[in-house]
Amino acid sequence: MKFNVGIIGCGSITRFRHAPEYKANPHVEEIIFYDRNIERAERLAKEFGGRVAKKLEDLLDDPTIVAISDCSSNEAHHINTSKALLSGKHVLCEKPLAISVKHAEEIALAERQSGKKLMVDHNQRFTKAHQKAREILDKKELGEVLTFKTTFGHKGPEGWGATKSNATWFFKKERSHYGVAGDLGIHKIDLIHYLLNDVIEDVHAFTAALDKVDEQGNSIEVCDNVVCALRTKKGRLGTASFSWTYYGSEDNATTIYCQKGIIKIYQQLDAPLIVEKIDGKIIKYEIEQMQTNDNQTNTGVIDAFIKCIVADETPPVTSREAIASLQVVEKILRSE
């Protein structure tokens, strides 16, 4: 089975993640690109051997397109993803699903009305280290989870985005809305939900724009740092920090503290997953490193999305799960 896919939005996430992974998938025949800036779409069509849709409607009305990636900026997700679903397309939407839980629920309604598959790109679930950690926790090899800590930080989106400048839409309240909480934080919230098979219920957080400035030299309109304390529905306690101001190597580490030991994830380059048992035994899993902005590898997200279409399976990251993570982000911002 081979079919065409469309991509809405032709920024860096499309160029470095979605387009090359669609190109490498054996079920994808051709990629059709749409962007409000047609030159961006034309550049990617040339780079990946696809074609260009001049209008969004041209993409949505194309009967050869079975699936669409919504890689538009945050404020447009509830519009583009809902339209794509109601046009009869399966959709992979970038995170966050929307700029509010209300808008996310609108997308979920469109999903139900269309009968099409909607998957959200919470890609941390697909790394080998996180999947192995989930397996260890599910089997209760270290007993029950007691506490956790997680962080996600790098130098900021201005070096990653298409403009390569501090004019990036990530710094604009009306487009990004959540700042670093919706860019990096939501990844770790979803990851904690996934690893612990639990949901974060209570949040106490500090948020701030500590260092980033916009193209006029003014402090940005959204937070560039978040530090919070969390409690899950099952009573686990944890801390989390998300930052656009880690001016060195990326930090994507998580630690899970259990009754009979500790799981350390992405803390050592030579061993992405380390288990330290209460008796002193240390097990190092030498599995693949996580993809970063500076280390582009296959995330597995596109392959998982295509597989759920071809095999008619439930997407591995559902809209309900994405909304649960979005609810936590809103609690973080309300807490401050």
TrEMBL record:
Residues 3-122 form the Gfo/Idh/MocA-like oxidoreductase N-terminal domain. Gene3D superfamilies: Dihydrodipicolinate Reductase, domain 2, NAD(P)-binding Rossmann-like Domain. InterPro entries: Gfo/Idh/MocA-like_OxRdtase_N (IPR000683), Gfo/Idh/MocA_Oxidoreductases (IPR051450), GFO_IDH_MocA-like_dom (IPR055170), NAD(P)-bd_dom_sf (IPR036291). GO terms for molecular function: nucleotide binding. Coiled coil: none annotated. Residues 130-263 form the GFO/IDH/MocA-like oxidoreductase domain. PANTHER family: BILIVERDIN REDUCTASE A. This is Gfo/Idh/MocA family oxidoreductase. It comes from Oceanobacillus bengalensis.
